[in-house]
Amino acid sequence: MSIPPRIGFIGLGIMGRAMALNLVKAGFQVSVYNRTRQRTTEFADMGCEVASTPRALAKLSDTVITMVSDPAAMDAVLEGPEGVLGAFSGGNTLINMSTVSCEYTKALAAKCRVAGVNFLDCPVSGSKPAAESGQLVLLAGGDEAVVKKLDPVLKAMGRAVIHAGQPPAGTALKLCVNLVLAHMTTAVAEGAALAEAQGVDPALVFTTLAENPAMNCGYFALKRNNLVNKDYPPAFPLKHMLKDARFMLSEARAKGLELPVTQAVAGLMERSYNSGYGDKDLTVIHRNLTEPLNAAKE
Amino acid sequence: MSIPPRIGFIGLGIMGRAMALNLVKAGFQVSVYNRTRQRTTEFADMGCEVASTPRALAKLSDTVITMVSDPAAMDAVLEGPEGVLGAFSGGNTLINMSTVSCEYTKALAAKCRVAGVNFLDCPVSGSKPAAESGQLVLLAGGDEAVVKKLDPVLKAMGRAVIHAGQPPAGTALKLCVNLVLAHMTTAVAEGAALAEAQGVDPALVFTTLAENPAMNCGYFALKRNNLVNKDYPPAFPLKHMLKDARFMLSEARAKGLELPVTQAVAGLMERSYNSGYGDKDLTVIHRNLTEPLNAAKE
User: What is the ipTM of this complex?
Assistant: First the structure.
């Protein structure tokens, strides 16, 4: 039996915190680093080492997992004299579970290859409840041997690991799945708006979807109340999906692929973001659709 | 106990045939009319009366159900000296289960009101398998008393009857549900195309969706093979969804509602229709997305 890896976890936001907690619960030796130190307290209380810099974390770890918000945050923890990469040597493993662009992922993979560091790009499908219950779906890009070796670590955070190919395949697959999710959001938003415009109770759209075995989908049920009550408390903030939507379109463009519907989905999200709704749940695009109806009624 | 209505069924296409068969199986007295007489043979063999004109059918029936392809076909069976309406008198009921426009439905409802004929607009959600197994969802617009009275008839064809309001509420609700279905189609088509463009196996998009409890949806599983194998045998012909998409946009426009994503969905379907794919399954829009990729490879 191989010795379980010492894991360093960077990024204790909503998702990262839940994932790191599941690693601790699974019995792994976990050290943590977070820019806002306050979020590390509960981990210190559980006996985890709290590193004061990413470099110090890397020194404590065989495998470092990053779950941060964007490429700038990635660079901040990986690069420079206090970054992870400077402290990493051959045989160490970096797993990036943040969703960044394929381009960024490719460059990072190349950098790791040169340094002899194993690399997985491994974004996740699923949101806070799935992260908390360890039911995320992990989309891995990397060498099959590395994915296999880290399977116990990955399975502590998710129900399934899907090996998509070499990096940035995990990231590329995540974009495709989030594309479907973004479209499903605008689908029920436009469906509910059309019902309202026609004087039909929008809740009946959801009732019908739930009654039809082919269209009965958990995501629709999750978002039903937002659209029926026109209240959009953040579960998946619009600004994050908009970031992904921009990645989808730039990836498609780079490959000579036209995605006319994704273009419209992203356009609607840009409009909603520009209305100041970036921190609301992505279903808030419904407000931009229905505002003209409400204005007409007044 | 009230006497079960004598039912006249008009339109024995893929859907209508299955629905009429379920009425026969449920023990109702069913007479049929179909423009192409050949399709009535199996009903004659089961002991159903076959009427030679819609008027003759109406004379045999308390309740006439129409399930035809478009407004022109509706007019052909309802209007004129050989049409249903001329033979109908007060107390008879017309149930239109075809999907036509809200405008057409409103005009028909008004005509029935003047003639003292009960009217339900009652399109269905679900396709051939659901029609065959009596698992359709029926979206009814009409007087609550009429919907209630005809519940046994409707339940012989479907698992649920959703009363949406006065006509054209059933039709309006159907449009909203088909809007979601159309969007779900372009969602997985663009998702699969983006995977392919990025060198990721499109089948993994479906695997990921199926693993995520929030996104695991029967419709995606139903359409998976079409998109993975790039083969689009007709289950729901594109031309029918395109007809509905045009209705969605014209309804929205009439109510001052802008539906930017539906606009893009309809645009893609128009393009695919103009490529000569109207009779293929609506997933065929995937071919229009991926053709440029294939051309680039050659």
Answer: 0.94
A235 CB neighbours in chain B (<8 A) are none
Nearest by CB: A165 against B102, B165, B200 = B200
Domain shared by A27 and A47, yes or no = yes
| Within-domain flag for B1 | no
Task: Note the pLDDT tens digit of each residue in A33-64.
Answer: 999 999 999 999 999 999 999 999 999 999 99
Cβ-Cβ contacts under 8 Å, A219 against chain B:
214-215
Distance from CA of A246 to the nearest CA of B (A): 13
Residues A182 and A131 in one domain: no
Q: Cβ distance A204 to A211 under 8 Å? A: no
In this structure, the answer to whether residues B92 and B222 fall within a common structural domain is no
pLDDT single digits (tens) B3-29:
788 999 999 999 999 999 999 999 999
Q: Which of A101, A163, A176 is best to mutate for the B interface (most B CBs within 10 A)?
A: A176
Q: Which of A138, A166, A194 is the last residue of a domain?
A: A166
Average pLDDT on A286-298 reads: 84
Structure token digits, residue A295: 């204005």
pLDDT in tens, B19-67: 999 999 999 999 999 999 999 999 999 999 999 999 999 999 999 999 9
Same domain, A154 and A235: no
Does residue A144 sit within a domain? Answer: yes
Q: For testing the chain B interface, which of A208, A222, A250 should be mutated: the one with the most B CBs within 10 Å?
A: A208
Q: A211, A224, A226, A246: which to substitute to probe chain B, counting the most B Cβ within 10 Å?
A: A211
Domain count of chain A? 2
- Asked if the Cβ–Cβ distance from B183 to A209 is below 8 Å, we say no
In this complex, which of B169, B172, B215 lies closest to A217 when CB atoms are compared?
Answer: B215
Shortest distance, CA A247 to any CA of chain B (angstroms): 11
Chain B: nearest CA to A28, how far in angstroms? 25
Mean pLDDT of B85-105: 93
Catalytic residue, chosen from A148, A149, A174, A230, is A174
Question: Do B99 and B203 lie in a common domain?
Answer: no
CATH number at residue A199: 1.10.1040.10
- Taking an 8 Å cut-off on Cβ atoms, the answer to whether A195 and B186 are in contact is no
Q: Is residue A1 part of a domain?
A: no
Q: Check whether residue B161 and residue B192 sit in a common domain.
A: no
Interchain CB distance below 8 Å, B199 and A165: yes
Which domain range does residue A195 map to?
172-297
pTM above 0.80, yes or no: yes
